Amino acid sequence: MQRYQCDRMRNQLSASPGRHDFVIVLNRLKAGFNVPKIFRSADIFGASEVHLINIGPFDPAPAVGAFRRVPARFFSDFQQSYDALTARGYTLFILEPRCERSVSRHPFPTKSAFVFGHEEFGNNIDGTRYPDLLCLGIPQFGSTDSLNVSVAASIVMYEYVRQFATS
């Protein structure tokens, strides 16, 4: 808990946006292993920031320092994050295993935000309240129901970076 508080303070004081203009939104994830792993990937892929919605303290060690480097914004509910992002011109995508629109075939706008839900229960977001949220899925071919959330987030970040890669 003390390490989390120390790293959170460092985050607020010195973290700076990465080179890409995408945001990762973590909606009610368990405050365990996946959150720091997603920060690690967000650092690697150059995320602008990570939104944490209703997520308690977590062990930052698996982030390997990324929690100190990638700006974190904390919210108590999705509406607050949504309002902040739409006010800045972001298009929001919600990741769901059964969405027919594939991340690999959908062109992303520069200002993209990707919403990931709870590992067991998914997202609790009422789509009728947010009709502009676009559903995306990652193609899956096996019999397992869904990918681990940190793996899914890494795939989406990679695809965003791939689309905007400059050689």
Structural description of this entry:
With 167 residues, this protein is an alpha/beta fold. It has one domain (2-163): SPOUT methyltransferase, trefoil knot domain (Alpha/beta knot, 3-Layer(aba) Sandwich). Helices cover 32% and strands 17% of the residues. The chain contains 5 helices and 6 strands. It has helices spanning 2-14, 34-44, 66-69, 78-87, 149-163, and strands spanning 22-27, 49-53, 72-75, 91-95, 112-116, 134-136. α2 (34-44) runs parallel beside α5 (149-163). The longest helix is centred in the last third of the chain and has 15 residues, at 149-163. The N and C termini lie far apart (42 Å).
Beta strand count: 6
CATH level-1 class: Alpha Beta
Please identify the structural class as seen in this structure. Answer: alpha/beta
Major β-sheet strand ordering:
3-2-1-5-4-6
Low-pLDDT residue spans: none
The CATH superfamily label reads: SPOUT methyltransferase, trefoil knot domain
Order of helices and strands: HEHEHEHEEEH
In short:
The protein has 167 residues and is an alpha/beta fold. The chain has helices at 2-14, 34-44, 66-69, 78-87, 149-163, and strands at residues 22-27, 49-53, 72-75, 91-95, 112-116, 134-136.
List keywords for this structure.
single chain, 167 residues, alpha/beta, Alpha/beta knot, six-stranded parallel sheet, globular
